[in-house]
Amino acid sequence: MRVRIDGATRELKTVWLEGDVVRMIDQRALPFDLRILDARDLEEVATAIEAMAVRGAPAIGAAAAYGLALAEARGMELERGATRLRRTRPTGHDLFAAIDFVLERVRAGVTAREAALAYAREDEERCLAIGRHGRRLIKPGMRILTHCNAGALAAVDHGTAMAPMRAARDAGVEFFVYVSETRPRLQGSRLTAWELQQEGIDHAIVVDSACGFLIQRGEVDLVLVGADRIAANGDTANKVGTYPKAVVAKANRVPFYVAAPLTTVDFGARSGRAIPIEERDESEVLLVDGTPVAPKGSHARNFAFDVTPARYVTGFVTDRGILTPAELRALRRKRR
Questions:
Q1: Residue 140 belongs to what H/E stretch?
Q2: Looking at 101, 127, 153, which one is the last position of a domain?
Q3: 3-class SS at 274?
Q4: Is-cis flag, bond preceding 31, omega within 30?
Q5: pTM (2 d.p.)
Q6: Residue 313, Ramachandran bin (φ over 0: left; ψ between -120 and 50: alpha; else beta)
Q7: 336 residues of the chain, pLDDT tens digit each
Q8: Which residue, of 160, 223, 264, 329, has the fewest CB within 10 Å?
Q9: How far apart are CA 282 and CA 259, in angstroms?
Q10: How many domains does the chain have?
Q11: Which domain holds residue 84?
């Protein structure tokens, strides 16, 4: 991704392996501080995932793959390391796909380091392909609504939902992005707005509860979001707050697209009911930057994700092309 530092533009990845250290942008510090976090063993990688220093399904997958490379370098039994990583965050499918990718190749005689580097390269290629396929959805003057962060920060680089935006911008297409702030951790206003600003893409932040009204007023031409896990029937788990946007978009005849690599599709999950939904600590809702925003003694439910039924999804922008929910279901039948 393009990052401006002290007036100069640099290309920076979200997570990478440097020697025997996993380096990652610490997303908890953005947008006010660009800080690099170093993880020197698998446990530090796992902790970074749990603490959301690194987040976004593809980025978590790459971090986990690199974590296994560190485990190998330190003589740790890989299956034990894999078990620890699988416990970090339950919803995103790329975490599990990355672990399986590395373990399968180690069993075939490849080192975990080589496998992890290959996984990260392939993640970049998948995101670039999503950008190429999705670019044609973005027309001049279009107003796009996105939710949470599905940009380069959510992958090794380029992103999923933001990959078509980057590709369209590079092709000279002018458009505008509405960024849903994404309570409680504000990944939209903190991360997506930061990425768009770095890329010079016009945007405005809107509170989550205003998105339906914005769509109803005819001020949104396209909703484009990422995904953390997609069931075989097309039901999609993404950051909580995605589902109501999809419902309102369909009611107002606004196309709703999900951008994700096929590694995000869990063909073993028949429907969204099979997707585990992470519920995080209530303090994320009750406190904002350490300041209480609710009466003492109040409690909160803090679902990290919701599930959008496939009937609300216009299509999936994948590394293999744009697929309808029916075409996605057909892929499952082919894999049997």
A1: none
A2: 127
A3: helix
A4: yes
A5: 0.95
A6: beta
A7: 988 877 788 889 999 999 999 999 999 999 999 999 999 999 999 999 999 999 999 999 999 999 999 999 999 999 999 999 999 999 999 999 999 999 999 999 999 999 999 999 999 999 999 999 999 999 999 999 999 999 999 999 999 999 999 999 999 999 999 999 999 999 999 999 999 999 999 999 999 999 999 999 999 999 999 999 999 999 999 999 999 999 999 999 999 999 999 999 999 999 999 999 999 999 999 999 899 999 999 999 999 999 999 999 999 999 999 999 999 999 877 665
A8: 329
A9: 29
A10: 2
A11: 2-127
At 4, list the tokens.
């401006």
Task: Please identify every residue annotated as catalytic.
Answer: 228
Q: Which CATH number fits the domain that encloses residue 51?
A: 1.20.120.420
Residue 318's H or E segment, with its range, is strand 315-318
Count how many Cα atoms sit within 13 Å of the Cα of residue 286 in the half-sphere of its side chain.
Answer: 12
Output b/e per residue, 66-91; b: 16+ Cβ within 10 A: bbbbbbbbeebebeebbebbeebbbb
- A 10 A CB-CB count for 324 gives 14
Cβ–Cβ contacts within 10 Å for residue 298, how many? 11
**225: closest CA among 237, 213, 234, 212?**
237
Say if residue 82 is in the same domain as residue 147.
no
DSSP for 191-202?
IIHHHHHHHT--
Residue listed under structure tokens 């369909």: 250
| Run of H or E including 79 | helix 78-86
DSSP letter, residue 19: T
| Virtual torsion, Cα 57, 90, 117, 261, nearest 10 deg | -40
Provide the β-strand partners of residue 308. Answer: 236
